[in-house]
Amino acid sequence: MDDLCVIAIDFGTAFSGYAFNISARGEESDPRLKRWGKEYGLETPKTPTCILFNEDKTFLSFGYEAQMKFKDMRGEEAKKHYFFEDFKMTLYKKKLSDLKIKDASGKPLEALKVFSESLRFLKDDALKTISSMTRVMAFNPSFFTWVLTVPAIWDESDKQFMIEAAKQAGIVTEGREENLLIVPEPEAAFIWCMKLQPDEFILKNHIKSLHQSPGTRYIVVDCGGGAIDMTVHEVQHGGALKELHKFSGNNLGGQTVNRKFKQFLREIFPDGVWDEFQQNYPSLAQGIMYEFTHLKQADTGIKFSLPLNLRLLAEKKAGRENIIKSGLGAFCYGYYIHIRRDRLMSFFDESLQGITQILIEIFDSVLHINYMLLVGGFAQSKILQQHIIEWFGRQCEILCPFRAQETTVHGAVELGINLQVMNIHKSSYAYRFPVSQRLDERRRKEENYFTAKGIVKNEDVLRKEGVGVGSEETRGFRRSPATAGQADMQMTFNHSSRKNPDEWGEEKDGPLDRTTSELKLETEFGSTEISALGIQLRSHFCKKSVTVVFQSFCMCSAVNDSST
Asked: Which residue ranges make up each domain of the chain?
């Protein structure tokens, strides 16, 4: 297969999908996007990120099919199955070793199984789609470059988890780890927006053209279901892009609004009714939340269906005339619950305040931003759009693509084809490569000693701000055993989110082969990942290559290589 065979998976909090490009080298074509839900009378660019397991924890279905099957299950049957939705951000700021997440009825299951089976389904479906289109019987995953998008606010352990899930899903195999690229979502979305014409934006403030001359600055606000990611880029000479501000953001995406809505449901119904309904009829409760996902894009009052079982529970608790409480911004009429516009807007308060605060900080630190790009599914909310215009419409042109939900996956394919379009990437960490050495007070300032886990060490600066993607720079570091009898040696990266830290966090890769000779670590920059090769200098036959996910400090995979 050709190097231009790329499959990109946008694994979102609320919705997921994929796009691909299988054009021959030299041919230019737009990515192809899978459309979902035709069997249910729908045609959407993504399918709900939900997965259903049998009671024995074996995979049953994903997306619309999982959603519909679970929705049709009766109470006891539904409680026996494992149904997960909106689970992506469970990784954020969590200890991931042996992490378990709870399904719709509170049953726990290993997070790695939930994620890997979800990715396996998307991988298999993508290969089937391409096989059907090209009339080729079957494709091996190793034929393709795979691009997996992740929130920019995720740290290295979250990315490491997704890499492991991709391996278990069969997306990449041992020895072919280079076939997988981990790409920040706002970066991918930005690349695609640069290809759009002015008439392809909903919000365009009457612009006649999208300037891409050197010095033009863009801020990308990726409004997803779970995360809000932001980054600032400047167009360079030759059309390459430089990142001016490291990734910022929070976990106050569209699902924050959904959580506020669910909290509202607990308030308006008689005490305990919503929780009882959710416990006994999880599929019906999930149906209400799915309906609200679409309704919240409006900027008017809304109404949603009132299931009979929920109505009966409320009547039993408080009587027919008191199905919902008064004075809370909602009323019941017929078979619908109506919510006033002001109450609907209150669900957005926390998320909008969080977005506004970060944007103010960015505008204070980066001057003369020309354009703001609103992307992601949550960006389709008219309440969000209007809020952003009111706060920042005088500082820059605000743009939102018509298909804001599709920008990330399209851009991910573009990056899979041509990674060099992103020229300079600003690292979120300072990196250092330490060695153990006895403290010398006379040279403390000169050599800048530091402390990690109570051990005093000196350092070599590996890389601080502004790691250059595409620079193809290789730096070498030589280290010798500290004692004559030392049998193992570990190469270690340290990192800190501060520019000039006194204390450093520490992560280690696995030890190199047993040796008493000098070792050299060659570290190469030139991709979204930092690659490193450890060489035993005495023999030059003992090598161990490792890959470091970009923006992280831990070694993500290890491959033994005995060749010279």
From this structure: 6-185, 186-251+348-417, 254-346, 430-561
H/E stretch holding 388:
helix 382-392
Distance of alpha carbon 164 from alpha carbon 141, whole angstroms: 16
The three state secondary structure string of 236-260 is CHHHCEEEEEEEEEECCCHHHHHHH
Q: CB of 489 within 8 A of CB of 511?
A: yes
CATH of the domain spanning 186-251+348-417, picked from 3.40.309.10, 3.30.420.40, 3.40.50.970, 3.30.1330.90: 3.30.420.40
Please report which confidence band the pLDDT of residue 314 belongs to, taking 50, 70 and 90 as the band edges: very high
Name every residue whose Cβ is closer than 8 Å to that of residue 418 and which is 6 or more positions away in sequence. Answer: none
Q: Tell me the pairing of strands 145-150 and 180-184.
A: parallel
Q: Which architecture does CATH list for 430-561? A: Sandwich (2.60)
User: What are the φ and ψ backbone dihedral angles of 125, each rounded to 5 degrees?
Assistant: -65, -40
CA 7 to chain centre: 16
State the pTM of this model. Answer: 0.77
Which pLDDT band, with edges at 50, 70 and 90, does 509 fall under? very low
Q: What is the pLDDT of residues 516-562, one digit of tens each?
A: 456 666 665 444 555 566 666 655 445 555 544 433 333 233 333 33
Is the Cβ–Cβ distance between 241 and 218 less than 8 Å? Answer: no
Same fold, 186-251+348-417 and 430-561: no
Please state, in angstroms and rounded to a whole number, the distance separating the CA atoms of residues 520 and 190: 38
Question: Parallel, antiparallel, or unpaired for β 145-150 and 6-11?
Answer: parallel
| 8 A C-beta contact, residue 283 and residue 80 | no
Question: CATH for 6-185?
Answer: 3.30.420.40
